[in-house]
Write a structure and sequence with these properties.
The protein is α+β, with helices and mostly antiparallel strands and 175 residues long. The protein has a single domain, classed as Roll (SH3 type barrels), CATH 2.30.30. 34% of the residues lie in helices and 20% in strands. The chain contains six helices and seven strands; from the N terminus they run H-E-E-E-E-E-E-E-H-H-H-H-H. The chain has helices at 2-21, 101-105, 112-115, 126-134, 139-150, 155-164, and strands spanning 29-33, 38-41, 50-54, 59-66, 69-74, 79-83, 87-88. Strands 6-5-4-1-7 form a five-stranded antiparallel β-sheet, with no helix packed on it. A two-stranded antiparallel sheet has the order 2-3. The longest helix has 20 residues, at 2-21.
Length: 175
Amino acid sequence: MPDRIARVIFGIVFLTVATWMLPSSNWAATLYAKQNDVKVNAEKSPTSAVIATLALGDPVTVLAEEGRLAKVKTATGKTGWVFKFRLTEDKPSMGGGELGLSGLTGRKTIAARESRSGGSIRGLKESTEQYANTKNIKQEHRDAVDRMEAFSIPPNELMQFKKAGNLGEFSGGVQ
């Protein structure tokens, strides 16, 4: 009987040590960049040195998570920090990588309940078009709306704006 207890204890200790010695990457999750130009920072700060830039769909291995940040290892072996909202569990399609709907949500579509306050994602809805016709909205005003919808801000300018205004990943430090 004591021999059997010793073997059980040895087995438990052996399995514990073996499990502890296995590389942690066996349990690490693989996530993907939601958009182009996802910065991998050396430290847990958006103002630290950028050690890598991910393209849409680039995989990373998550090594740890702290608040809004994920410590990741890139496919090239570099280790750094990325804001989790820039990553997704599902590999995105390789269509564009702009800061549009998929860049914000990781999806190309949204549910109807999510779009109610914003109207249509592209162009005027049919009911809005009818309203514009009924109310004799001038074509120049419709064209102005089209220009606003087509307006695009380059990612580097958007980052400068967010940094200057302490917005997005620059708001309040790491939480």
